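Q: I'm writing up a methods section and want to include an example of the input and output format. Could you take the sequence below and give the corresponding predicted structure tokens, formatted cleanly so I can copy it straight into the document?
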Amino acid sequence: MRIPDSLFFTRARAQLEGSRSAFAEAQSRALTGKRVQKPSDDPLAAAQAQRASFRGKRAEGHERTVNVALAALHVADDALQHVSEALERARQLALQAATDTQNADNRAAVAEEISQIREQVRSLANTRAGGRYVFSGYSDGTEAFDPTGAYQGHPEAAQLRVAPGVSLAMGVPGDQIFAPPAGADAFATLEALETALRTNDVTGIRGAVDGIDASAKQVVDARAELGGSFESAETALSVVQRIQDQSVAEQSKLTDADAIGAFSDLARAQQALEAAVQIAANLPPAGLLERS
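A: Here is the clean output for your methods example:
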């Protein structure tokens, strides 16, 4: 039985197209370093790599959240550092003004600075980070303290979800720092000191020092609490970064091509393509064979 000449051309054309396709795939693997570039290349590996990618992206989102929390905690801690400095300055002024060498005029001048310190402390208590008041608790869209020093925020710290099942306190509510129900009211203490200075009340000036010391201790305690939040945030950051690294490594293991193997496959595919091209080139025109 005679095999039609057209069959030779069909087979040669199919071999040439197959060689071209195999060469293109081998070239892509060698250039990209990826063994699995589409699900059909290895359905199981592609599905596992996709799940690893989802874990990595979720961890990346948690990392952004943790960094937001860390930034807010840094802002809050920096504000409290300045509060500590302001209270220490007020304490020094009170001790100086309480000495017998000072007179009414001197104390009135000191009262002006105490007034400025009180306003500075209130401004620091209303510190914002990323558009939110860091000492307002859950009511972080509301200024923590009004001009009279009254607390307007929420008594509980806002919680930020930084990882699956893990939440982080976003700072310390201002009423626990500046005016706790069972503690020292920094604003009332500074106001009382200012009044004592203006009225030349030495006993009142000396009495204000204890209130300043108590307020300063509350600030120290709040900074210690922030320190615990810092540690939790840093731990959460390490965890989510490790998850991202594991995700990248797992995806690489599942989808990356062996470099040496990929270029060896490319060389073989190129040889096969060249051979197919040569075969196709040596075939006479189909029409000529059909007429012979």
